């Protein structure tokens, strides 16, 4: 039996209050999730990148800080979609300190 099947079976026996508590836990766990952005150990040093690419979020943030437009980024990185830039911006806004540290580390390298 898969974990998902086990959970489905457990849900049948749970009260509405228990299900509500479970939803709160899941929402809290997923609250840090960023669609379209992933960190994979061994890929770009584990830094958050746009899915399907090896383009770190900090690279896009720094490029925007240096004056690159979205159109220029899409032209420079043909694998990117406009949606990817939106996801990267949302991730950067919710992880500002991390992104700033990655930009600083790159500047020192």
Number of helices: 6
- Number of separate structural domains: 2
Q: Order of strands side by side in the largest beta sheet?
A: 1-2
The fourth-level CATH homologous superfamily of the largest domain is: Winged helix-like DNA-binding domain superfamily/Winged helix DNA-binding domain
User: What sequence of helices (H) and strands (E) makes up the elements?
Assistant: HHEEHHHH
Strand content: under 5%
Helix fraction, binned, reads: 55-70%
Model regions low in confidence, pLDDT < 50 over at least 5 residues: none
The SS-based structural class is mainly alpha
Mean pLDDT: 90
> Could you name the CATH class of the largest domain?
Mainly Alpha
Description:
- It contains six helices and two strands; from the N terminus they run H-H-E-E-H-H-H-H.
- The chain is elongated, with a radius of gyration of 19 Å.
- It folds into two domains: 1-31; 37-108, Orthogonal Bundle (Arc Repressor Mutant, subunit A), CATH 1.10.10.
- The mean pLDDT is 90.
- The chain is mainly alpha-helical.
- It has a two-stranded antiparallel ribbon.
- The longest helix has 15 residues, at 16-30.
- 15% of the residues are buried.
- Helix 3 packs across helix 5 and helix 3 (57-65) packs across helix 6.
- Helices cover 62% and strands 4% of the residues.
